[in-house]
Amino acid sequence: MPVTNAFTIDVEDYFHVALFEKHVSRNQWDAMEYRVEGNTDTLLELLDRQNVHATFFILGWVAERFPNLVRRIATQGHEVASHGMHHVRATEQNPEDFLQDILASKHLLEDLSGQPVRGYRASTYSIGRNNMWAFDLLEKAGYEYSSSVYPIRHDLYGWPKAPRFPFYPRKKEASNATLLEVPITTLEWFGMRLPCGGGGYFRLYPLAFSLWALRQLNQNEGQSAVFYCHPWELDPDQPRITGLPGRVRLRHYLNLHKTANRLHRLLASFQWDRLDRIFLPPLPPTPPERVPPLS
Ligand SMILES: [Zn+2]
User: Fold this and answer.
1) What confidence score (pLDDT) does residue 288 get?
2) Ligand 1 centroid, distance to 17 Cα (angstroms)
3) Which residue of 4, 83, 105, 203 has the lowest C-beta tally within 10 Å?
């Protein structure tokens, strides 16, 4: 039986990305041209054509402005999960602010989607060894899993020695912490960890390499991959931010015109599903509504 992989999307706009934080300030966000709704609809169509259900980690900022988009994602059978409210890294929040943010985004998305929000992804994979308290607060807020660790070395994020596959970061012998961390996929290759879970790397590498890496993971290790992308990565016509250093420009705009076709081929090459269906136990069925007795 083929291994099923998790397809995930971080629903945010092109100007929310960490690479732009020095170039587009937060108070400019509302004056920018929004592209996130149209680009997410493109992804929804792509998934629908391949009959794939995915997990959407939706930014609260986006949900507040496009509530119907959240409803469409849920109605089409996808998992709605949280990407926090304002795209602030967990490393830049104190525990009180973090708890408020994860509670607010959970409630907002549950109200809009009518489904329980079980998962959370931190902005810029910003949970690691130095802020393990974040896992405790996620559990306290009622989340069942986090997908916030990229176990590689990287300039913006990374916890290079973290386990490569799902683990319970706070479970000790004496405690029964149940929050599961589901890291982004890497491949171990001659002692190196290669990132192969999507994002900029997927646009940088030739498609053949990405397909090969996931096949290695599925066939040799028998593990499910966790792949991620952003709606703006399918949008070569997005407004250009001016004054960016060459390195930032190259990373953000690289191969945007190839992404839709590459994703189409990636989806066709493997079996995919929502993250919760692969890694979490199924939710108990909701009890049928009680019919009031006839008087
Ligand atoms: Zn993000």
Assistant:
1) 64
2) 6
3) 4
CA of 2 from ligand 1 middle (Å) equals 30
Interatomic CA distance for residues 61 and 66, integer angstroms: 9
Q: What pLDDT, on a 0 to 100 scale, did the predictor assign at position 171?
A: 84
Residue pLDDT, tens place only, 10-53: 999 998 988 888 888 889 999 899 999 999 999 999 999 999 99
pTM reported for the whole predicted model:
0.94
| 3-state SS assignment for residue 19 | helix
Cα–ligand 1 centroid distance for 157 (angstroms): 12
d(CA 89, CA 112): 24
- Distance between CA 93 and CA 88 in Å, rounded? 7
274: region left, alpha or beta (phi > 0 left; psi from -120 to 50 alpha)? beta
What is the per-residue pLDDT across 69-114, written as a single tens digit (0 to 9) for each?
999 999 999 999 999 999 999 999 999 999 999 999 999 999 999 9
Q: Count Cα atoms within 13 angstroms, Cβ side, for 215.
A: 9
Please report, in angstroms and rounded to a whole number, the separation of the first and last CA atoms in the chain.
Answer: 54
pLDDT tens, position by position, 136-163 = 999 999 999 999 999 987 776 668 889 9
Q: Which residues keep their CB under 5 angstroms from ion ligand 1?
A: 10, 12, 123
> What is the torsion angle, in degrees rounded to the nearest 10, for the CA atoms of residue 206, residue 208, residue 214 and residue 220?
-130
